[in-house]
Specification:
This protein has 251 residues and is α+β, with helices and mostly antiparallel strands. Among the domains are: 130 residues, Pleckstrin-homology domain (PH domain)/Phosphotyrosine-binding domain (PTB) (PH-domain like, Roll), CATH 2.30.29.30; 41 residues. The strands form 2 sheets. A 4-stranded antiparallel β-sheet has the order 1-2-3-4. Strand 5 and strand 6 form a beta hairpin.
Length: 251
């Protein structure tokens, strides 16, 4: 029985792509796993011009790139083994196709956005949420750094972390985050993204000190309106709205 020239898996009817789609330049065929992986790196038309050595080199380069991404996530404070364990079965495996080669991950957390589980990722170039639902292509929601006003860690009524992103005059929230991860995410953004560090905070404090009396109070109704709109859209629950209301009113 023939074997896949790259991973040595024995080929059979079930694990070999039909119609000779996985045939290489030397006539050998790839197994379905290697073929599917190769399709993420090159077009179907290119496959039959490749040799087994070409494919092995592509996979080795991809492995090195993936290891680099894992290291970047680990450097944000996440556990390396946990990242590796969850890579194959979660949204993480789509990161190589989402990130540009020159992007470096500086903050990372798992959470739920718009009722879909995924990962919130910050690079120096952008902030995005990556989600993957069954049978659907990966979905990336980008948040332009120029429109991000703040990234704040919070805790909901059940003691679970929330990452609140003030974005383009609205509030976007990533729910279901571990409290430690939410705090670490905000700290990493402040440490690595220009405009979100301590200097900015000091400027904000100075502005607040020089602000006219009543300015802070005037902002409360606007904030309540924003949260009320989010509640009406179903983005936050009544309980979450009530908690925010109490917080804003100092109750």
């Amino acid at each position: 029985m023939s074997k896949c020239p790259v991973c040595s898996t024995e080929l059979n009817f079930l694990n070999t792509p039909l119609l000779g789609k996985s045939k290489l330049a030397n006539g050998e065929k790839l197994c379905k796993n290697c073929y599917d992986r190769l399709l993420t790196m090159c077009d179907q038309a290119q496959i039959q011009s490749l040799t087994p050595n070409d494919v092995a080199k592509l996979f080795a380069d991809d492995d090195a790139y993936v290891d680099g991404i894992i290291t970047q996530i680990e450097n944000t404070g996440m556990n390396r083994q946990s990242i590796i364990d969850y890579w194959a079965s979660t949204e993480l495996k789509y990161l190589p196709g989402v990130l540009d080669q020159d992007e470096t991950i500086v903050a990372f957390a798992n959470g739920v956005y718009d009722d879909v589980t995924g990962v919130i990722v910050a690079t120096q170039a952008r902030l995005f949420f990556l989600a993957k639902q069954p049978l659907l292509d990966p979905e990336v929601t980008d948040f332009d750094w120029d429109l991000v006003e703040s990234v704040t860690p919070e805790i909901d009524d059940e003691g679970v972390g929330v990452i609140t992103i003030a974005y383009d005059g609205d509030l976007q929230e990533i729910f279901g985050v571990r409290v430690a991860d939410a705090n670490r995410f905000a700290d990493n953004v402040a440490a690595n993204i220009e405009g979100f560090g301590d200097d900015d905070d000091e400027e904000d404090e100075d502005e607040e000190d020089n602000a006219q009396p009543g300015m802070a109070e005037a902002d409360v109704p606007a904030q309540l309106e924003k949260y009320a709109a989010l509640k009406e859209k179903g983005v936050i629950t009544q309980a979450e709205f009530d908690a925010k209301k109490k917080q804003l009113l100092g109750l």
